Input
Amino acid sequence: MDATHSDIAIVGAGMAGLACATQLAAAGRDVRVFDKGRGPGGRMAARRADVAGETVRFDHGAQYFTAREPAFREAVAAWEAQGVVARWPAAQTSSSDAAWVGVPGMNGPIKAMADTVAQAGREVLWNTRIEAVRREKDRWRLGSGKAVYTADTVLIAIPAEQTRDLLAACAPAYAAIAAEVTSEPCWAVMVAFANALPISRDASRDSAAPISWAARNSSKPERGGGETWVLHASPQRSRELIDTPREEVGPILLADFFDQMQTKPVIPIHIAAHRWLYARPASIKGDPARYDRQAGLGIAGDYLHSPRVEGAWVSGAALATIVLGKAQS
Output
């Protein structure tokens, strides 16, 4: 068999894609995973920055997650035992739902799953954007620049809008499902200060305000790095600034933050902004994963279950179960 061929190709190495890949690899299936990112994370990314001579990690995507379904609770317990997640009391909103974060960054469990896949002798290819997927005789053909990969089965685990575009020509029915989804954008700002800000809370939520979420990133387990914050603009504020240059967005949203906190503005020693176009999808009704066994094609993602880290994991795990024949689609 050609070296670029695999039994199963998974597009997307975020929570959904790797939840699927780890289970398929554990069952002995020949899996190859592709992701356009430089490393593990997706929307659970952690960005490194040099701040005052020290390397600091900012969680600029998902801030924390909860675990409610039994299977996901088991996965989280295993991650805790591995030391790749920890509790973060500042974000806990009820006595029953603990708030969890990855360590040393939010992508901790993503890295652990990618390592598990690699240790099973399977490939996870970073910096590999799959630009086209098409059916060619009895197999799927995936194009990435000049490189071409083939697979008997293709599983798509990327945001709904990207799934729609990738499958529009080769799988219009699944593209139509993804097209039902609308995702809210989010501007994220990563900022560091020379001294602690006079703000007692480590996390603040206000869905009606320009800054819907603000967190003292340095309060999370194993972060360090002095006084660091991550600010998330609300969907409305993000849309207002959607095409504003990132170097302008940071100061604008930082001013919003100080105004909301009723705190005198402080000049930061580091500031950077990142635009998430597909930050929070509206989930659609139906099964948590879809799979056409005859075509050898499936889709997974939080938009098929719930717009949370847990929703992505549940969807990816459900797709693996179906592919392995433990359930019928």
